Amino acid sequence: MTTLMLVGATGLVGGAVLRQAQSDARVGRIVAPTRRQLPPHPKLENPLVDFEHLPADAPWWAVDGVICTLGTTIRKARSQEAFRRVDHDYPPAVAQLARQHGARAFALNSATGADARSRFFYNRVKGEVEEAIGGVGYPSLSIVRPALIGGDRDEFRPAEFVAMRVLRLAERLLPSRYRIVPHERIASVLLEAAVTAPPGEQIIESDTS
Fold it and tell me: What global pTM score does this model have?
């Protein structure tokens, strides 16, 4: 059975990944480092960490694959610098440490429009983190690029709420890659990629997930 690391387990997509992994017979153990405690589960190891100071020699880094759903908003982070630290700095740091301890597969939840050369800050950050993780050397790297993520969040995001309303009204007119994607579907794609570990790098756009 596979041992997985899940980073971002307290978020919308990460929480769905956690639930699916807990009920997946292929997954024997889930390591989910978080800043706050998760509900206990027989499969779950939940080390509490400070992502600014990750313990490089912790034995729980030794996993088969990693799923990363870390992410925030500029509104919540309160500055572009703080947003960049969470969305850009933390995922490659996790990728490096897990790879050093033998992980062979990495599945990243990114975003439609990710481009390291984009003039838009959000898209540029997402593109840069994809490139950074791509340079770590995983035998299997899966990058999932959903459009707007559908689901009920614990926090209210005004801009996202407005975008959801507009997209739902115009959904039939939009190309499939720009439609709302249910968070459970994104989680399923990430989990499948981490467990099956397809060789090489694959980018899964919103309309193919």
Answer: 0.86
What averages of pLDDT result for each successive group of 10 residues across the chain (209 residues)?
Answer: 96 96 98 97 98 97 98 86 94 98 98 94 96 98 87 53 48 53 92 98 80
Q: Where are the beta strands (DSSP E) in the chain?
A: 2-7, 27-31, 44-45, 65-68, 105-109, 140-145, 149-150, 181-182, 200-205
What total number of domains does the chain contain? 1
In Å, the largest CA–CA distance within the chain is 51
In-domain check, residue 156: no
Tokens (6 digits) for 177: 């890659």
Hey, what are 68's tokens?
């990363």
Evaluate whether residue 117 is within a structural domain: yes
Q: What is the pLDDT of residue 83?
A: 93
> Are 12 and 148 in contact, with CB atoms under 8 Å apart?
no
CA 127, CA 65: separation in Å to the nearest integer? 21
CATH number at residue 189: 3.40.50.720
**DSSP letter assigned to residue 89:** I
Domain extent, residue 55, equals: 2-147+182-205
Angle (deg, nearest 10), helices 183-196 and 12-22: 50
19 in any annotated domain: yes
Per-residue pLDDT, 178: 52
Residue 70 and residue 85 in contact, taking contact as beta carbons nearer than 8 Å: no
Q: Please, which residues have CB within 8 angstroms of residue 184's CB and are 6 or more apart in sequence?
A: 16, 20, 151
DSSP state of 142: E
